[in-house]
Amino acid sequence: AVSAVELAQHFLTRIEAANALNAFLEVNPEATLAAATQADVSIARGHAGPLTGIPIAHKDVFVTRDWKSTAGSNMLAQYVSPFDATVVERLAHAGMVCVGKTNMDEFAMGSSTENSFFGLTQNPWDLAAVPGGSSGGSAAAVAARLVSAATGSDTGGSIRQPAAFTGVTGIKPTYGRVSRYGMIAFASSLDQAGPIAVSAADCALLLNALAGSDPRDSTSLAQETEDFTRYLGQSWNTQANPSQATPTGQTQERPNLKGLRIGLPKEYFSAGLAAEVRSALETALKVYESLGATLIEISLPKTELSIPVYYVLASAEASSNLSRFDGVRYGHRAAHYRDLADLYQKTRTEGFGAEVKRRILVGAYVLSHGYYDAYYVQAQKIRRLIAQDFQQGFAQCDVMMGPVSPTVAWNLGEKTDDPLHMYLADIYTLSISLAGLPGMSIPCGFGQNAHDSRPVGLQIIGNYFSEARMLQIAHAFQ
Ligand code: GLN
């Protein structure tokens, strides 16, 4: 057997060799090896669980005591938190060994990881392509096998879309399933943490450790402890049976999914979808049909409105959350200033990048007197209608499937001059976040021609709290 220390050393060597990808913002071999040594002690004492000694990387949006927590921003370039985020704490408690902090779009605002103050991250499949974002560092690290799994956060697609672009598996749980305590806030009513890993089975194990209510996050939900591996390898109609589940191994035969109704939102397969993505999805859907599932066309008529609604609400919440970065309490502070107003202005001018400033301006605008009713309140109303669309959809099916992104990963630099163009690429992930539903991405093929090394993700959308079933469905494909 391999010891936790040997495993950590293996991944640290790989991380160093892949330095050019810029997936990691900080590695600290000393801290990693100390944690691995601890894990080996637990193993020797017979206290090991399924995650003990397994390496994990954390998106730099999660605060950590032993590592810097920058959120990809100059504002927090030197920031070290006095406490660990609940996500970090829970995985450490499960015995996982942190190997580093991963790159991300500044304050998780972006879809390509090009908005990081610390430089872009490359897609390991094709170095000319973006890895997606905002959790691009985590996704690239898992895809390049620099770590076994990583944490991500998803406000409007930031776990699902980078997972899709890098050919790995990621799940954004139901809003409130995982604690936001210690996750640097972007848009609090949308932010949700989740795992990025090489398989649905691994995501299930990680979610076992991550999920749970937390008195330190008032929006975390009271919930029964759940074993997210309990349906893995089971047929759709079989009751969960943990003793028969095969959580980590591949099942020999694909389970029977007879009785499973898969809803295909027709708006997700309309003209905006690239032919190469459509064709990979169709092949995957045929596999599900061959397993016994039925495909049903459904409709989510408000899909297009999700872009303006999300960018109004997320920016509004961001402008409020980011007001804490004032140069006084923590983080960057301008060196020279005349008075308090000047301190705020200089600190924020220096500390925030262009995309973050854009969101703060939009957010302050839509919340301002005279525009609040026209934009913010209106967007809140449509948000509710979007959630209702999904409930009508789920009356006809058990789960929905569709693309994660209209295209495969685009080229580095391709959308950096055109923020609106970048926003439009979020069309298939935003409404799930607005509704607070769980969504996941699993790899289902590659693009074509010049893109034949760029992965395609299949999105699985479940109803509230149906993560165990989504993981079952994903696992059946893998
Ligand atoms: N791309 C979206 C945005 O820029 C979503 C990002 C996220 O989920 N954090 O806001």
TrEMBL record:
<feature type="active site" description="Charge relay system">
    <location>
        <position position="59"/>
    </location>
</feature>
<feature type="region of interest" description="Disordered">
    <location>
        <begin position="236"/>
        <end position="256"/>
    </location>
</feature>
<feature type="active site" description="Charge relay system">
    <location>
        <position position="134"/>
    </location>
</feature>
<comment type="similarity">
    <text>Belongs to the amidase family. GatA subfamily.</text>
</comment>
<protein>
    <recommendedName>
        <fullName>Glutamyl-tRNA(Gln) amidotransferase subunit A</fullName>
        <ecNumber>6.3.5.7</ecNumber>
    </recommendedName>
</protein>
<keyword id="KW-0808">Transferase</keyword>
<keyword id="KW-0436">Ligase</keyword>
<dbReference type="GO" id="GO:0005524">
    <property type="term" value="F:ATP binding"/>
</dbReference>
<dbReference type="InterPro" id="IPR023631">
    <property type="entry name" value="Amidase_dom"/>
</dbReference>
<dbReference type="GO" id="GO:0050567">
    <property type="term" value="F:glutaminyl-tRNA synthase (glutamine-hydrolyzing) activity"/>
</dbReference>
<dbReference type="InterPro" id="IPR020556">
    <property type="entry name" value="Amidase_CS"/>
</dbReference>
<dbReference type="GO" id="GO:0030956">
    <property type="term" value="C:glutamyl-tRNA(Gln) amidotransferase complex"/>
</dbReference>
<dbReference type="GO" id="GO:0006412">
    <property type="term" value="P:translation"/>
</dbReference>
<feature type="active site" description="Acyl-ester intermediate">
    <location>
        <position position="158"/>
    </location>
</feature>
<comment type="function">
    <text>Allows the formation of correctly charged Gln-tRNA(Gln) through the transamidation of misacylated Glu-tRNA(Gln) in organisms which lack glutaminyl-tRNA synthetase. The reaction takes place in the presence of glutamine and ATP through an activated gamma-phospho-Glu-tRNA(Gln).</text>
</comment>
<dbReference type="InterPro" id="IPR000120">
    <property type="entry name" value="Amidase"/>
</dbReference>
<feature type="compositionally biased region" description="Polar residues">
    <location>
        <begin position="236"/>
        <end position="254"/>
    </location>
</feature>
<dbReference type="InterPro" id="IPR036928">
    <property type="entry name" value="AS_sf"/>
</dbReference>
<dbReference type="InterPro" id="IPR004412">
    <property type="entry name" value="GatA"/>
</dbReference>
<keyword id="KW-0067">ATP-binding</keyword>
<keyword id="KW-0547">Nucleotide-binding</keyword>
<comment type="subunit">
    <text>Heterotrimer of A, B and C subunits.</text>
</comment>
<keyword id="KW-0648">Protein biosynthesis</keyword>
<dbReference type="Pfam" id="PF01425">
    <property type="entry name" value="Amidase"/>
</dbReference>
<dbReference type="GO" id="GO:0016740">
    <property type="term" value="F:transferase activity"/>
</dbReference>
